[in-house]
C-alpha cells in the first residue's frame, strides 16, 4: 500500500511539474467543449434560394412571399431562365433554385394540379435532405392555403378533411440541439484525454529507459499499474466535473437525473478506458506508435458512438460493431440521466456492459504487462 | 560463489546475442566484462538481472536461480543500466527516496553504504536529475542501485561518456564498495579499466574468449610486441603488413604495434626492410604488453 501511495505521489509530482502539459490538459478540453458545442449543430439555417418565375401570377407571388417570410431562407435573386439558374447553382451562389412554370396559376385553377421544379445542391447530402423537407413543408402550406381559397370560391359544399399533426418534443421540448450535444461532447473529451494520457504514460517510461530500472525492482505488477493509472482516473473525474459545471452554467443543460449516478458510472467507465490505454502501452515501443493506435480507435469510437449520426440509421453490421463501442454506452447513459432523469434501474444495462468490458480489458492489460521478456 | 553462469545462450528471433556463456564470480569480487560494442555485454546483464529469460542454460545469482527465483533476485541485486534511466523530472532526493520506497526500505536505513557517494551530490539534492552533469548522474544512479543494500551489483558500462576524472573517481568508489563485501560485475569497452578489476572476462561476438586476472592475461601472452615509429606513419602499417614474417600490425597510440611470427625477431633485418621502403627516423623498441594487445590477438 505504501508503495502504491508513493508511486501515485510521484506521478502527481511529475504531472504538476510539467507546467505546459498541465495547461493543455485543463484548458484544451474546456475550449473544445465551448467551441464544439456551439459549432456542431445539425440546424440548417441561412438557406439561399433563387426563383425563376415564368408565371408572375398571384399564386406564384404567394409562394415566393412564404419563402421570404421564413427566417431559414434568404432569397438571393430573381432569375429569368433555367440556364441562368443552373449557372447560379454551379457557381455556388445559391443552394436551391425553384422554377415556377408558365401557367402555374391557371393549371391550379383548371386542373387542380400544377408542377414546380426544385433544384437543390446536394454536395452535402444530409443538408440537401433537410432543405428538401423544409421546402416541401412550405410548398405544402401554400398548397393548402390556395386549395382552401379555390374550393371556398367555387364549390362550397365540399368539406375539407385533413389530418393535422401537432408534435410535442419530450425531454427537449424546444429541440435545442445543444442540450443534446453538450453531454455527448463532454463524454468524448473525458474519453480522449484519459485514453491518450494513459496510453502514452507507460510507453514514455519505456522510451526513457526508466521502466527497465523499475522492472529490476521487487515492485509488484498491480502496485505499479494502480500507481501509474490512479492519477489519470482522478484527472478524468476532475475534467468531468469541470465539464458538468460548464454544461450547466454556460449551456444550461438540464440535469434531471442523479449526479451521483453520473460520477459512479464515470468511475467505472474510466477504469475501462485506462485499461485500454495500458493495453496499448504494453504493445507499443514509442509514444508515437501509442498515439497512432489510440487515435485510430478514437476516430472509430467517435464516429460510431451515435453522437453525430444516429445508430438506428446505420446498416445492421455497423450497428453490431457499435455494441463494442464504450463511448456509445456512455453517450446513451449520460443523455438518459441528464435529459430524461433516468435512474439506476433504467441505465443498469449500460452499467453492466461497461463493467464487463472494464474487467475484460483490464485483465488482458495486466496479463500482457510483462516485467521479463 | 556470488554469480555462477552455466551455458547461457540468448537469441532474438534469428540473431544470436550470446552463446554458451559460462563463468563464475566469487563473493566480494570485482569482475570485469571487457569487450567492444555489440559483444553481448548488455544482453548478459539483462539476463542475469531477470529482464530477459535465456533460451538455454541457467545462472545462480546471490544464491537464487534466475529463472525460478525472480523475486528474490530482484530484492538482492542492484542494476545500473548503461543508459541513464532515472526520472529526469524528479530531483536527486526524490529519485533516491522513490527507489528506496519501492525496494521497501528508507534512505536512512542504508545510508552508510551510499554516504561516500551521496555527500558528493548532496549539495545539489534539490536539482532535477535531467539538469545534472554526466558524472553526477552516474553517482546518483549508483546511489539508487545501492539503496537497498544489494549483495550483487551489476554495472553496465558505467563510465561510458564520463570524463576521465569522474571515471577515475568512479573506480575508486567501486573499490570501496568491494571492501564492504559487495560483489560487483562491471562491463566496459575501455581496456585501461580492465586492470582495475580482480578478474576479467574478454567477450566478443557473444562468446567469452578468456577469463583470468589482468596480470595473468598479460603475462601469459608469449609473443613479443614491438613499438615502431617512423617519419611516414601512414604507409608504415601497409609496409609492415607486407613484411614476410609479420603476425599482426595495428595502430596503438603514437606507435604501431608489431608482432612477428618468430619469437626472436631480427630487428636489423626489419630496419633494413623499412629503410628500403624510404622510411627514416625509425624507432623500434620492445613494448609492454597490455590487455588491449591480448584482446586484439584473440
Automatic annotation (TrEMBL), chain A:
One protein family per Pfam: ABC2_membrane_3
Record-annotated membrane-spanning stretches: 180-203, 224-246, 258-280, 292-311, 347-369
Domain of life: Bacteria
Cellular location(s): Cell membrane
Keyword field: Cell membrane, Membrane, Transmembrane, Transmembrane helix, Transport
Any one GO molecular-function label of the UniProt entry: ABC-type transporter activity
Domain ABC transmembrane type-2: 135-372
Main location group: membrane
GO CC annotations on file: plasma membrane
Membrane topology label: Multi-pass membrane protein
Coiled coil: none
Family affiliation: Belongs to the ABC-2 integral membrane protein family.
UniProt protein name: ABC-2 type transport system permease protein
Species annotation: Flavobacterium cheniae
Highest classification ranks of the organism: Bacteria, Pseudomonadati, Bacteroidota, Flavobacteriia, Flavobacteriales
TrEMBL record, chain B:
Cross-referenced InterPro entries: AAA+_ATPase, ABC_transporter-like_ATP-bd, ABC_transporter-like_CS, P-loop_NTPase
Residues annotated as domain ABC transporter: 3-230
SUPFAM superfamilies on file: P-loop containing nucleoside triphosphate hydrolases
Alphabetic keyword roster: ATP-binding, Nucleotide-binding
SMART domains noted in UniProt: AAA (SM00382)
Name assigned to this protein: ABC-type multidrug transport system ATPase subunit
GO terms assigned for molecular function: ATP binding; ATP hydrolysis activity
PANTHER family: ABC TRANSPORTER G FAMILY MEMBER 20 ISOFORM X1 (PTHR43038:SF3), ATP-BINDING CASSETTE, SUB-FAMILY H, MEMBER 1 (PTHR43038)
Matches recorded under PROSITE patterns: ABC_TRANSPORTER_1, ABC_TRANSPORTER_2
Organism this protein belongs to: Flavobacterium cheniae
Amino acid at each position: 500500500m505504501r508503495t502504491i501511495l508513493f508511486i501515485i505521489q510521484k506521478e502527481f509530482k511529475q504531472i504538476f511539474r510539467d507546467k505546459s502539459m498541465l495547461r493543455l490538459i485543463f484548458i484544451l478540453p474546456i475550449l473544445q467543449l465551448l467551441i464544439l458545442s456551439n459549432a456542431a449543430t445539425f440546424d440548417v439555417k441561412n438557406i439561399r434560394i433563387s426563383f425563376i418565375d415564368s408565371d408572375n401570377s398571384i399564386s406564384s407571388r404567394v409562394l415566393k412571399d412564404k419563402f421570404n417570410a421564413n427566417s431559414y431562407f434568404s432569397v438571393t435573386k430573381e432569375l429569368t431562365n433555367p440556364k441562368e439558374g443552373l449557372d447560379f447553382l454551379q457557381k455556388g451562389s445559391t443552394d436551391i433554385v425553384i422554377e415556377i412554370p408558365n401557367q402555374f396559376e391557371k393549371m391550379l385553377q383548371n386542373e387542380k394540379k400544377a408542377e414546380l421544379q426544385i433544384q437543390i445542391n446536394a454536395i452535402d447530402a444530409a443538408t440537401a435532405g433537410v432543405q428538401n423537407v423544409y421546402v416541401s413543408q412550405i410548398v405544402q402550406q401554400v398548397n393548402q392555403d390556395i386549395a382552401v381559397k379555390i374550393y371556398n370560391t367555387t364549390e362550397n359544399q365540399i368539406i375539407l378533411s385533413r389530418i393535422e399533426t401537432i408534435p410535442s418534443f419530450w425531454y427537449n421540448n424546444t429541440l435545442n440541439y445543444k442540450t443534446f450535444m453538450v453531454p455527448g461532447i463532454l463524454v468524448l473529451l473525458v474519453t480522449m484525454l484519459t485514453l491518450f494520457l494513459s496510453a502514452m504514460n507507460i510507453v514514455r517510461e519505456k522510451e526513457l529507459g526508466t521502466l527497465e530500472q523499475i522492472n529490476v525492482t521487487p515492485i509488484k505488477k498491480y502496485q505499479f499499474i494502480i500507481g501509474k493509472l490512479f492519477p489519470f482516473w482522478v484527472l478524468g473525474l476532475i475534467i468531468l466535473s469541470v465539464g458538468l459545471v460548464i454544461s450547466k452554467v454556460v449551456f444550461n443543460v438540464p440535469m434531471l437525473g442523479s449526479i451521483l449516478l453520473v460520477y459512479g458510472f464515470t468511475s467505472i467507465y474510466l477504469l475501462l478506458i485506462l485499461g485500454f490505454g495500458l493495453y496499448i502501452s504494453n504493445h507499443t515501443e514509442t509514444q508515437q506508435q501509442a498515439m497512432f493506435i489510440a487515435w485510430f480507435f478514437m476516430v472509430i469510437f467517435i464516429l460510431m458512438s451515435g453522437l453525430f449520426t444516429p445508430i438506428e440509421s446505420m446498416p445492421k453490421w455497423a450497428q453490431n460493431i457499435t455494441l463494442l463501442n464504450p463511448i456509445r454506452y456512455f453517450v446513451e447513459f449520460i443523455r438518459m440521466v441528464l435529459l430524461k432523469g433516468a435512474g439506476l434501474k433504467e441505465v443498469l444495462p449500460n452499467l453492466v456492459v461497461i463493467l464487463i468490458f472494464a474487467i475484460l480489458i483490464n485483465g488482458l492489460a495486466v496479463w500482457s504487462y510483462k516485467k521479463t521478456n | 560463489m556470488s554469480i555462477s553462469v552455466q551455458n547461457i545462450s540468448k537469441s532474438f528471433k534469428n540473431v544470436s546475442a550470446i552463446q554458451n556463456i559460462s563463468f563464475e564470480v566469487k563473493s566480494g569480487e570485482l569482475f570485469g566484462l571487457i569487450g567492444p560494442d555489440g559483444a553481448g555485454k548488455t544482453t548478459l546483464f539483462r539476463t542475469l538481472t531477470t529482464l530477459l529469460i535465456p533460451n538455454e542454460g541457467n545462472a545462480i545469482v546471490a544464491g537464487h536461480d534466475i529463472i525460478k527465483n525472480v523475486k528474490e533476485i530482484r530484492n538482492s541485486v542492484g542494476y545500473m543500466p548503461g543508459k541513464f534511466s532515472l526520472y529526469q523530472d524528479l530531483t536527486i532526493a526524490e529519485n533516491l527516496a522513490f527507489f528506496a520506497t519501492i525496494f521497501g526500505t528508507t534512505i536512512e536505513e542504508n545510508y552508510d553504504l551510499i554516504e561516500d557517494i551521496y555527500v558528493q551530490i548532496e549539495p545539489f539534492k534539490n536539482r532535477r536529475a535531467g539538469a545534472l552533469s554526466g558524472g553526477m548522474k552516474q553517482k546518483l544512479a549508483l546511489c539508487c542501485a545501492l539503496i537497498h543494500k544489494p549483495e550483487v551489483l551489476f554495472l553496465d558500462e558505467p563510465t561510458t561518456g564520463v570524463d576521465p576524472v569522474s571515471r577515475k573517481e568512479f573506480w575508486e568508489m567501486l573499490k570501496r564498495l568491494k571492501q564492504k563485501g559487495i560483489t560487483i560485475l562491471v562491463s566496459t569497452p575501455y581496456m585501461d579499466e580492465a586492470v582495475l578489476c580482480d578478474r576479467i572476462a574478454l567477450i566478443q561476438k557473444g562468446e567469452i574468449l578468456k577469463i583470468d586476472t589482468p596480470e595473468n592475461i598479460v603475462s601469459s601472452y608469449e609473443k613479443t610486441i614491438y613499438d615502431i615509429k617512423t617519419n611516414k606513419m601512414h604507409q608504415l602499417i601497409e609496409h609492415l603488413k607486407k613484411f614476410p614474417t609479420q603476425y599482426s600490425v595495428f595502430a596503438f597510440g603514437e606507435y604501431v604495434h608489431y608482432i612477428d611470427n618468430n619469437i626472436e625477431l631480427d630487428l636489423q633485418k626489419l630496419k633494413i626492410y623499412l629503410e628500403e621502403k624510404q622510411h627514416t627516423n625509425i624507432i623500434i623498441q620492445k613494448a609492454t604488453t597490455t590487455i588491449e594487445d591480448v584482446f586484439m590477438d584473440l
